[in-house]
Amino acid sequence: MDIEAELLKILVMNKDYVSGTKLAQALGVSRATINRTIKKLILRGFIIDIHPKLGYRLVDLDNLSQINRYVDYLDTQMKFYTHYVEICDSTQDIASTFAKEGAPEGTVVVAEELRRGRGRMGRQWVASRGGLWFSIVLRPKTIKHMHLLSLAIATAIAESISNVLGIEARVKWPNDVLVNEKKVAGILIEGSVEADIIHFIIVGIGVNVNNNLPQELLDIAISLKDVMGTEVPRIPLFLNILKSIDDIYNLFNQNRSSEAVKRWRQYSSTLNKYVRVITIDGEFEGVAEDIEDDGALRIRTTKGNRVKVYAGDVIHLREQKQL
């Protein structure tokens, strides 16, 4: 039993204080274990009110309009500046406008709802209330392989979901985040690049948290609320994602992108899978053997050839079979 996850569920489901004795009885552990677990949850970003007589209460952290009061205290190398809007067409468009007007790196636009959310390859992204929909302005001095940053951001999100909620999140090449092999988050990277000069990059992130998904998407997508069995406080997750992005983005600034690739491998759901690859040049099947240091996915095809894929869609078919 995952004590942290089970204790978190109890606190989320109870809006009032829960005594340490009741928590210990419910989980079949000692009071000392409860105390240690509470401290671990606090370190993961949850704000827990501790009362000497009443016990523990999870502070409701789902009001994104109040996000600035928490972001200001983030211990990150990159300073984040958040702009909250209730409804907009796309946070990507607002963040791009800010960037063109000189907004600093770390500017974040977060919305409750998107009317015209978009994903990779021009696809529509359904972004109703309850999710995390935001875009970040980055101004890297140089990035050799832009799509590698996309993989790294996906890894940061998977790490945060795993760390904050105690559930297993994985990444599917190139940048889908999965839970139970269903998509829980996606990334869209756009930017202004001229020759070798990067003016700015806009990283768009969408995470299905407490939002209700359309019926037609339930076979391929999932929300964290459905995984946890209860609504999830969004602010601790949001803050942890920002911290993880800051950490992995610094690897690029320090010319250590190979370390980001290693972290992607640790969370990969694609490697050693038999997959179908769809590119603008056609489709083929094979085994996803590895990821290159430049972010390319190396496939061993059914004909025995090894192919590097830099852009396209990958569909997981089954575990590796003998070719």
How would you describe this protein?
With 323 residues, the protein is α+β, with helices and mostly antiparallel strands. The protein has three domains: 3-58, Arc Repressor Mutant, subunit A, CATH 1.10.10.10; 64-267, Bira Bifunctional Protein, Domain 2 (BirA Bifunctional Protein, domain 2, 2-Layer Sandwich), CATH 3.30.930.10; 273-319, SH3 type barrels, CATH 2.30.30. Helices cover 32% and strands 29% of the residues. The protein is built from nine helices and 14 strands. A seven-stranded mixed beta sheet has the order 3-4-5-9-8-7-6, sandwiched between helices. It has a five-stranded antiparallel beta sheet with strand order 13-12-11-10-14, with no helix packed on it. A two-stranded antiparallel sheet has the order 1-2. Strand 7 (176-179) and strand 8 (182-194) form a beta hairpin. Helix 6 packs antiparallel against helix 8 (234-253) and helix 8 (234-253) crosses helix 9. The chain is globular, with a radius of gyration of 21 Å. One of its GO terms (biological process) is regulation of DNA-templated transcription. This is Biotin--[acetyl-CoA-carboxylase] ligase. It is an enzyme of class 6 (ligase). Its EC number is 6.3.4.15.
